[in-house]
Amino acid sequence: MTPAWTTLPDLASRRLGGGVPWANDEFFAERENLIKPEPPTFQTYTFGHKGQVYDGWETRRRREPGVDQAIVRLGVPGIVRGVIVDTAFFKGNYPPEASVEACGLEGYPSTAELALAEWHPIVSRSKLAGDAENVFDVDSDRRWTHVRLTIYPDGGVARLRVHGDPVADPRLLAGAVDLAALENGGEILNASNVFYSKPTNLISPGFAAVMGDGWETARRRDDGNDWVLLKLAAEGVITIAELDTSHFKGNAPGWASVSGCGDRVDDPGSWFELLPRTRLQPDTRHRFPLDVDRPVKHVRLDVFPDGGMARLRLTGTPTDAGRSFLLRRWFNALPADQATVIFDNKAAVDARPLDADQPLPHVLSRLIR
């Protein structure tokens, strides 16, 4: 059975800004292939000057004791729920075993600083199968910024998928922000239809490069309409809604509306209008100012009757309660070594986790702007 966490974002993906700053060896195939968002491919008898070209990371054959390693910077830091070590097309040259460690670091560390980091195991040394997706659950409630893949002793890995829940740094969410953005903690809860592509694309970073980077539904043959339900990163007041139909030309929705509510998602009476049903144009970024000062936690986008949307941006300001939520979640999830560096207050760090009804300690309350 496929684990539920595979539907969560791949925090390591290049599409979310992930990178591979270091590997000790990449003789046969480049380390950057590990985080490509698309599935791995293979073409027979495609040889370069170092042999068969592989869509993955492949090291040379070891002739001495040791292991090979690659460090991945997560595009979006977060709590890792599961890891996939995909050895697709590596059959006689896959590593027989692998492990994964993680760390949480401030700022933008160099490779030298990464080498000195405190690494924590999240996947113990485990056997791998060749030409297969090797799936591993992760039991950790910490927010990680980097992972390190170790293969024993050498070989090739096509992709490393690191699925989890994004946890934004609230220090970077001052003022008006995109409350729907995946990187800020926005989450897709449900959608009426996911036939062509996933609605998570709606809240991914950057502009869509092609139609497939958005959310597109099947053609409706009834009187209904399609919709997607989101949980915002935090409670806030939305001031601008951006509905982007870029690349959708003959298949954009004709109209759309946006509504919001607090916690009572299942109560029809708790929903209220943020943007009334409005005509849309194909292949266009639509930006609408909203004149609603009621805070929301959940948002529903309705498209009429069906079609594709590239991105949904909901710019707004977190309420005091929303900002407190962001601070607690981030503070509770920080690895102890990173939290100590940030706050220089071991007593506050050791007192975690903070419950929702606890007042914020001074080390956190001073971050509220």
Automatic annotation (TrEMBL):
It is an enzyme of class 3 (hydrolase). Keywords: Hydrolase, Purine metabolism. The keyword Zinc does not apply. Pathway: Nitrogen metabolism; (S)-allantoin degradation; (S)-ureidoglycolate from allantoate (aminidohydrolase route): step 1/1. It holds the Pfam family Allantoicase. Coiled coil: none annotated. It comes from the Bacteria. It catalyses: allantoate + H2O = (S)-ureidoglycolate + urea. Residues 17-166, 185-318 form the Allantoicase domain. Its EC number is 3.5.3.4. Gene3D superfamilies: Galactose-binding domain-like (2.60.120.260). GO terms for biological process: allantoin catabolic process; purine nucleobase metabolic process. GO terms for molecular function: allantoicase activity. NCBIfam families: allantoicase. Belongs to the allantoicase family. This is Probable allantoicase. It comes from Kutzneria buriramensis.
